[in-house]
Amino acid sequence: MSQVKAKKHLGQHFLTDKNIAEKIVNSLIHTHKYKKVLEVGPGMGVLSDFLLKKEAFETYLIDIDTESFEYLHRQYPNLGDKLINADFLALNFKDIFLEPFAIIGNFPYNISSQILFKVLENRQQVPEVVGMFQKEVAERCVAKPGSKEYGILSVFLQAYYKCEYLFTVKAGVFNPPPKVLSAVIRLSRNEVADLDCDEKLFWQVVKAGFNQRRKTLSNALAGIIPKDKQDDTEVWTLRAERLSVADFVKLTNLISLNIKEN
């Protein structure tokens, strides 16, 4: 069977190591929370082979690449409408899944952050994500307050998910090899249905704080709450990278209160 040619503009790097592929698939551990799994960017099906052997869930595949789609259609003729030729980022999950489902993939590195924000937007429907990312993106997802990797993505993901760094993957197990190291992480939905604050304001505060991460929060957030409306709490003297998710929730509530009182 003819091989699929990796396309640079789609960020394709096909995993060739079956042991690693099996390890990634076996990293789905919360299978009691869903009955369906969506693989993003299956390429030539190295993960799909292991996913389709699992009886705990039904496997769906989505690939924007028509050549991959046609290859997979020949490879798995019984998949029918569970094989989808579409853009994951443009997909309305509720058109396909009426209940919770997991997401897995060797994700294209050029859209990895967009994939994670898509997951966040649909967090009530996605209890688990297992995926391969560029190592530095994986490190950002799991970073702790105070580290240089800690940022917007860290806070948003950790607000709603337990984020685990599982293992590092070398470039040589891909075709073509990427110029970076890769890593597999797992996101497990936590018990937080809603944050204990104005969530829209929370997102604004986190983004503003990190967009000027070298500045103190007093300066970085002046566009949201002018300095003359900020109280004398110590938090204003800190930088965004020092604050945990819980700290950002408290700060959001403090801002809400100060805006109302002034």
Automatic annotation (TrEMBL):
InterPro entries: KsgA/Erm (IPR001737), rRNA_Ade_diMease-like_C (IPR023165), rRNA_Ade_methylase_Trfase_N (IPR020598), rRNA_adenine_dimethylase (IPR011530), SAM-dependent_MTases_sf (IPR029063). It is an enzyme of class 2 (transferase). CDD domains: AdoMet_MTases. One of its GO terms (cellular component) is cytosol. SUPFAM superfamilies: S-adenosyl-L-methionine-dependent methyltransferases. The keyword rRNA processing applies. Residues 20-191 form the Ribosomal RNA adenine methylase transferase N-terminal domain. It catalyses: adenosine(1518)/adenosine(1519) in 16S rRNA + 4 S-adenosyl-L-methionine = N(6)-dimethyladenosine(1518)/N(6)-dimethyladenosine(1519) in 16S rRNA + 4 S-adenosyl-L-homocysteine + 4 H(+). GO terms for molecular function: 16S rRNA (adenine(1518)-N(6)/adenine(1519)-N(6))-dimethyltransferase activity; RNA binding. Belongs to the class I-like SAM-binding methyltransferase superfamily. rRNA adenine N(6)-methyltransferase family. RsmA subfamily. It is found in: Cytoplasm. This is Ribosomal RNA small subunit methyltransferase A. Keywords: Cytoplasm, Methyltransferase, RNA-binding, rRNA processing, S-adenosyl-L-methionine, Transferase. It comes from the Bacteria. Specifically dimethylates two adjacent adenosines (A1518 and A1519) in the loop of a conserved hairpin near the 3'-end of 16S rRNA in the 30S particle. May play a critical role in biogenesis of 30S subunits. SMART domains: rADc. S-adenosyl-L-methionine binds at H13, L15, G41, D63, D87, N106. It holds the Pfam family RrnaAD. The gene is rsmA.
